[in-house]
Design goal:
The chain crosses the membrane at residues 79-98, 135-160, 180-201, 270-292, 346-371, 383-403. By secondary structure, this protein is mostly helical. The chain has 15 helices and 2 strands. It has helices spanning 6-18, 21-35, 52-68, 76-96, 98-123, 129-146, 148-153, 190-209, 227-242, 245-258, 266-292, 302-323, 346-378, 390-404, 414-437; strands at 175-177, 180-182. β1 and β2 (180-182) form a beta hairpin. The protein is globular, with a radius of gyration of 23 Å.
């Protein structure tokens, strides 16, 4: 039954050909990406082994390229995404040879390049921002509700799929904290679930502030709680059940930037954030470093031990990473320290695997997109209702990613979701830029009225 990914692949092909790539992307690809695990693969001899997500996106991308590829507008973000994917493939080829490199390059194309391409070419150009946002928010809400079982019983409902994929996904197990199971849903681990649900929460708040939801769920009008509020509660519950501090911290800091779009005095708000970073952030970072630098052996609490472990990672691995700074050691061949086998810092892990070039490209994507989004919104009139500014929401999501992956791993669904957010943001910026350049009809300075006597 390992060939199950062919089912959504064929459905996506039919919908893309019969209707449109946009419909296939929204109605088939997004649910597959967010509801089905990416750690199960369809093993095909002599070919790369696709996940459900990768198999589904291939026909959609093919139809899109045939029908719309000639109208593609190249931009700087395209170059960054292509260089990032190419850098990782090149690193793997130099470190492990062609066989491993072809598999990883397929992953990068199917899970980074294609999601970015479709998001950029379909969401804003087709006017699907609200529809896409609602779709991913509803998928995350479903995951949050289903994961109550995992939180209570310690077993993920998605474990039922293992009978079709013997030997696969065994490394992804439910972890516990404070005596409770940390939900991972179809995302493998609680840290990954926490990150994607934090993204979903930010998108949901934009929908709620923009009054894009109908008042109540169909058939539940008797409830006094609105539809938007119920969805928000479901997402908050899911985030809490992950019990992961990294995404919580990233979500809180990202919310600060998003909040700028909720005020009429945006420049003052940005200045206040900058001041808070200087006055509060720097001393807080210094205090945290002192708190975490005691070493695991001298930690007094489990939380301090976790923080100390992340500081020790830099001491144990930074020198190793700098020995091969350009291309790293490869995805599965980087040297592991037996005293610190898990690297809870994606920047450090990426440097070990694929070098400083890959890290630099990833950081450049996040920084440039955030700056461009904020600059675009600052140059535009205040959006009403307050909070309906999509640019600040997307910028806040990049901050969520940038902060979170400094404390946790980035993998599985978090990677294509990041590519989608980048493509969505680029399409949004290009659309706004084209609107600003649209010619306007000049009005005469004086208007004369002819009077016939």
């Amino acid at each position: 039954m390992g060939f199950l990914p062919i089912v959504p692949m064929l459905i996506a092909a039919y919908v893309a050909l019969r209707y449109s790539p946009a419909r296939a992307f929204l109605q088939v690809y997004v649910p597959v990406l967010l509801l089905l695990p990416m750690y199960y693969r369809w093993v095909i001899p002599l070919l790369p082994d696709p996940t459900f997500e990768q198999a589904t996106i291939l026909p959609i991308a093919a139809v899109f390229l045939v029908r719309s590829g000639g109208r593609w507008k190249f931009s700087f973000a395209d170059l960054l995404i292509l260089c990032f994917a190419g850098c990782i493939g090149t690193s793997e080829y130099l470190n492990t040879g062609y066989n491993e490199a072809q598999n990883l390059m397929f992953d990068m194309v199917a899970s980074v390049v294609f999601p970015y391409m479709l998001a950029k070419g379909l969401i804003e150009p087709q006017g699907l921002s609200v529809a896409f946002a609602k779709k991913i928010v509803l998928m995350f809400s479903i995951v949050s509700v289903l994961s109550i079982y995992e939180f209570r019983m310690g077993l993920t409902p998605w474990i039922l799929m293992r009978r079709f994929y013997p030997g696969q996904g065994l490394e992804w197990v439910t972890s516990f904290r404070y005596g409770f199971a940390r939900i991972g849903g179809p995302y493998g681990h609680a840290i990954l679930a926490g990150l994607v649900l934090a993204v979903g929460f930010r998108v949901q708040r934009w929908l709620e502030w923009s009054a894009q939801w109908e008042s109540h769920f169909h058939g539940l009008k008797w409830l006094r709680v609105s539809k938007a509020r119920l969805i928000t509660i479901a997402l908050v519950g899911g985030i809490i059940m992950t019990m992961v501090r990294g995404p919580w911290l990233g979500g809180a800091i990202g919310a600060c930037l998003t909040a700028v779009g909720r005020t009429r005095h945006r420049r003052r708000a940005l200045m206040a954030i900058a001041g808070a970073i200087i006055i509060i952030g720097i001393p807080a970072a210094s205090s945290f470093y002192s708190y975490a630098s005691v070493g695991r052996a001298h930690a007094k609490t489990a939380s301090q031990e976790t923080a100390a472990y992340r500081v020790e990672l830099m001491d144990k691995y930074l020198t190793t990473a700098l020995k091969r700074p350009a291309w790293g050691y490869g995805r599965n061949t980087w040297p592991k320290n037996p005293t610190a086998p898990s690297i809870d810092n994606y920047y450090l892990l990426l440097c070990l695997m694929h070098g400083m070039v890959a890290v630099g490209l990833l950081v450049t994507i996040m920084v440039t997109m955030t700056v461009r989004l904020v600059r675009s919104e600052m140059r535009s009139p205040v959006s009403y209702p307050l909070g309906s500014s999509l640019g600040f929401t997307l910028a806040g999501i990049f901050v969520v990613y940038a902060v979170t992956i400094a404390t946790v791993y980035m993998g599985l669904q978090t990677i294509p979701l990041f590519a989608i957010i980048t493509g969505w943001s680029e399409g949004y910026l290009l659309k706004r830029y084209s609107m600003q350049l649209a010619p306007t009809v000049a009005q005469p300075v004086f208007r004369f009225r002819r009077v016939v006597l």
